[in-house]
Amino acid sequence: MTVRPVLHWPDKRLRTPAADVAEITDEVRATWDDMIDVMEAMPGVGLAAVQIGVMQRLAVVDASESRGQAVRMANPEVLHASVQPREHEEASPCLPGVSAKITRPRAVTVRFLNAAGEIEERDFVGLWSTSVQHQIDHLAGKMYFDRLSKVKRDMLLKKARKLRG
Q1: Rounded to 5 degrees, what are φ and ψ at 89?
Q2: Backbone angles phi, psi at 12, to 5 degrees
Q3: Do 49 and 13 contact (CB within 8 A), yes or no?
Q4: What is the pTM of this model?
Q5: 1 pLDDT band (50/70/90 cuts)?
Q6: CB atoms within 10 A of CB 157
Q7: What is the spatial distance between Cα 101 and Cα 87, in angstroms, rounded to a whole number?
Q8: Is the pLDDT of residue 76 over 90?
Q9: For the chain, where are the alpha helices, taking DSSP H only?
């Protein structure tokens, strides 16, 4: 099995908002399958299609202990976010070797088009919530480090550049 390559920062596509998905097709399903393969190979708990150069609003998330529970989402949007915050160390294969503590809502309700092509609303809590929000940011052309102060963001990017050589 060949795993698709992940784009690396500062690829311009990582700053480009992805296009909405009109319907769930075999091509969309194949992209989701590829995304899950990439996510498992990292290993990670989520992936947005833009991270592999597919400019569609597609995401997969699997924060389960056992794995194999990936939620496939098209056009995900947060409908409601809890006021209770949760801090978590976040990273991205697009910027390898660095991570940062990011504060996001502890729980979110997300509406998306599911694998059956139906509109679904689902609550995500804890790591699931963090990962879903992280992927939605990617689909909007944002990186997790955009949520840091300028000083912390600059330090993180400097460290990443140094690691790249």
Answers
A1: -75, 115
A2: -60, -30
A3: no
A4: 0.95
A5: low
A6: 17
A7: 6
A8: yes
A9: 26-41, 127-139, 150-164
